[in-house]
């Protein structure tokens, strides 16, 4: 019996089916943008642990920083005995905040903790309770985060009543009439029919939707949201959990629009594969919560802080923002070329190296089943790539920014073969 199959059978007996895996490939080791499974098979990684590995698997600088911290201590709980690396990381993030004025940062462990704590802070700072999010948005799997997530299946199905005071407006994807004007009009209708704007604590938005399909929030939309927030005393939260840390060609995706949020949620590539998240916010907003109201036992782990400080060094030293722009343009040009060549590819989109596209049927309509077939065929050929979108219709590319050009070319060749294999298998 092969090892992957044996481990999959053990997984099915030991792990509840509620946690799904995109593949049945069990990884044994990884390096930069390559992984090897327990049977020795090599894979090119275009998933990056779902946007966690912008600096690659086992980046040497990150590993050295973590090893140095391991030799000193692994945990004290910052609420019991604080440590310098937490403070040092917050200082560096405050200096990088995508807004003017004094900033403060608090650290957590997961992306859901970041989004939920941003809402907690906003509620205290404004004295209000309601939150507006967007259809197709993804903000995590814990209960309040699930309520803010704009997709029922599988994130809300069967979990009973969601926390109240969370409202959704359409996100302007530019598809099927989903325009900026329609989204803003929907919010005005919400204010007329459901709640007064003076009850809204925050609007939370992904500058580039992740799970929702890699749709980029148009700058004009973010500008309109900023004005709406300013007009009504609402805080604007940028959820950068998936889009942050050089992926879009800037440290944070919202910087591409020129709009300044009041808070930024971050996680994933912040710590290069180690669990760490946080919220950067305007100092007066962040200080609204009384001592003891925020935190967590593992929040701001010493190992995560050490890794994150090294990540910030790597992004700067290796010019990863510029690298994201360069490889992103190459990937976009190639995908657009595929559309012109008649391959089942449409709606190429993204910022920097956060690139997505729809897999379409013979009539040019996005097709989730076909997309799944493409990811499966790519896996068989040695490429790990993920789907996304409300109907699973989109391929998202999250290759580590440290991958060399040859490896990216090799991955795209496999992806092209997978798309061609789809067409051939359907014709057969």
UniProtKB/TrEMBL annotation:
Tagged with keyword Transferase: yes
InterPro entries for the chain: 4NH2But_aminotransferase_bac, Aminotrans_3, Aminotrans_3_PPA_site, Class-III_PLP-dep_AT, PyrdxlP-dep_Trfase, PyrdxlP-dep_Trfase_major, PyrdxlP-dep_Trfase_small
CDD domains referenced in this protein's UniProt entry, alphabetically: OAT_like
Cofactor(s) this protein requires: pyridoxal 5'-phosphate
Signal peptide location: none
Keyword tags: Aminotransferase, Pyridoxal phosphate, Transferase
Pfam families the UniProt entry points to: Aminotran_3
Protein family membership: Belongs to the class-III pyridoxal-phosphate-dependent aminotransferase family.
Stated name of the protein: 4-aminobutyrate--2-oxoglutarate transaminase
The species this protein was found in: Erythrobacter westpacificensis
Organism placement in taxonomy: Bacteria, Pseudomonadati, Pseudomonadota, Alphaproteobacteria, Sphingomonadales
């Amino acid at each position: 019996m092969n090892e992957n199959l044996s481990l999959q059978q053990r997984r099915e007996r030991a792990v509840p089916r509620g946690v799904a895996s995109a593949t049945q490939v069990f990884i044994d080791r990884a390096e930069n943008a390559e992984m090897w499974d327990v049977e020795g098979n090599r894979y090119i990684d275009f998933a990056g642990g779902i946007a966690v590995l912008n600096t690659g698997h086992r980046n040497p600088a990150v590993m050295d920083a973590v090893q140095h911290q391991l030799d000193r201590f692994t945990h004290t709980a910052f609420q019991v005995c604080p440590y310098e690396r937490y403070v040092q990381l917050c200082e560096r993030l405050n200096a990088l905040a995508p807004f003017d004025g004094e900033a403060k940062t608090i650290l957590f462990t997961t992306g859901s903790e970041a989004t939920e704590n941003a809402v907690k802070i906003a509620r205290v700072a404004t004295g209000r309770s309601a939150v507006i999010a967007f259809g197709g948005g993804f903000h995590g799997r814990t209960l309040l985060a699930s309520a803010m997530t704009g997709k029922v299946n599988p994130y809300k199905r069967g979990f009973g009543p969601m926390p109240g005071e969370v409202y959704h407006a359409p996100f302007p994807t530019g598809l099927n009439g989903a325009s900026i004007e329609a989204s803003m009009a929907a919010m005005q209708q919400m204010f007329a029919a459901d709640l007064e704007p003076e009850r809204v604590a925050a609007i939370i938005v992904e500058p580039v939707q992740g799970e929702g399909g890699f749709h980029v929030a148009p700058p004009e939309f973010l500008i309109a949201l900023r004005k709406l927030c300013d007009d009504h005393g609402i805080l604007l939260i940028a959820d950068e959990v998936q889009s942050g840390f050089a992926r879009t060609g800037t440290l944070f995706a919202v910087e591409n629009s020129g709009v300044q949020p009041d808070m930024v949620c971050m996680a994933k590539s912040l710590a290069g594969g180690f669990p760490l998240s946080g919220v950067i916010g305007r100092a007066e907003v962040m200080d609204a919560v009384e001592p003891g109201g925020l935190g967590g036992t593992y929040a701001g782990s010493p190992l995560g802080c050490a890794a994150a400080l090294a990540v910030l060094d790597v992004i700067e030293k290796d010019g990863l923002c510029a690298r994201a722009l360069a490889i992103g343009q190459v990937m976009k040009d190639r995908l657009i070329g595929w559309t012109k060549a008649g391959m089942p590819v449409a709606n190429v989109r993204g910022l920097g190296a956060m690139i997505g596209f729809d897999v379409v049927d013979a009539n040019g309509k996005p097709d989730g089943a076909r997309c799944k077939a493409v990811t499966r065929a790519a896996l068989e050929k040695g490429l790990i790539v993920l789907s996304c979108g409300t109907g699973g219709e989109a391929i998202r590319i999250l290759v580590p920014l440290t991958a060399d050009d040859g490896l990216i070319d090799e991955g795209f060749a496999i992806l092209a073969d997978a798309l061609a294999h789809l067409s051939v298998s359907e014709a057969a």
